Amino acid sequence: MLVLLIEIAGQLYCIRARSVVEVIPRVPLQPVPHAPMSLAGLLHYRSEVIPVLDLRAIIARQPSDAYLSTRIAVVDIGKRLGLVCERLTEALEIDEAAIAPAPVSLEAAPWLGGVLMHDGAVARELLIEHFTVEAVA
Amino acid sequence: MQADCWNEVGVWAAGGATCPRLAEVVHCHNCDVFARAGRGLLDQPAPPGYLESWAEELARVKEGEAGMRLAFFVFRIGEEWLALPAGAVAEVAERLPIRKIPGRATGLINVHGELHLCFSMSAILGIAADGEAQRSVVIGNAEGQWVFAADEVWGMLPVDPAALDDVPVTIARDASAHVRYIVDWERGKISCLDDKLLFATLQRRVRDV
Questions:
Q1: Which is nearest to B140 in space by CA: B208, B206, B209?
Q2: Which ipTM was obtained for this model?
Q3: Are residues B61 and B75 in the same domain?
Q4: Which residue from A104, B34, B68, B85 lies 20 to 30 Å from A137 (Cα-Cα)?
């Protein structure tokens, strides 16, 4: 199983690559008036307009830095959605069993999944299917 | 450790490599310090115009995204450009030396320590080849691998399956026996060889000689 590693506010996270359609640079987005910080904007993607959520805004309540290492992962969870991910620079081939079940689960953060040990650090899995505009924005 | 240790104690050091990590990783390329520094280069704002050009690119529909595409490996034998299904090609190498087998027309070629029978594509297809081939091409299926010398290799050509043309019946029998399709290429139409038939021919010839 392939996972993408993300570093948000100094913490490692990972998402499963299976539902990721494409990883693209953090291009300028159409702003949505009165949108919460977690909704970064709208992306004109392949003749389609898709909403883009900012993972750092959702997790750490701060907008992502506009660095080259900040990328947008276009994911397909029934419909297409963009996720702004900081330090999305590494993919990792792991065994599905390497992700241990979540030790705690909070109602406020339903998108937090199991834990993966990587290089001595702990990466939390982010359950992409819980990132919907209605749920987090 | 310094910020650019690869220039101070690593393989690019003026006074020679002295880093103790090299005993384990051999080259700075394999070292995680070097990898981390490389990723750090991305922690800076994008150059002007970069993101705008990407935004433009992403708004467009990806060419050929709809439907499956076949890939063909395009190479040249003599004056003839030919194609093979990409799945049949295992490797392309610089021209490798052929070890002759006494009493046989073919020879053996050593590719990564494995010996493969080599054959002359020009003899099978009846095309005159250049004198000096540039590349050795390893082709094969589950049953075995063979190597032939190509005068030139162009690369991979993506083809829409709907654009495959059948072979005209009037083509000379000798070469067209191995030609499956005619495909459009930037320099005109080229013949795509039938890999299954080619492998069958090779199997038969190995037994016959």
A1: B206
A2: 0.75
A3: no
A4: A104
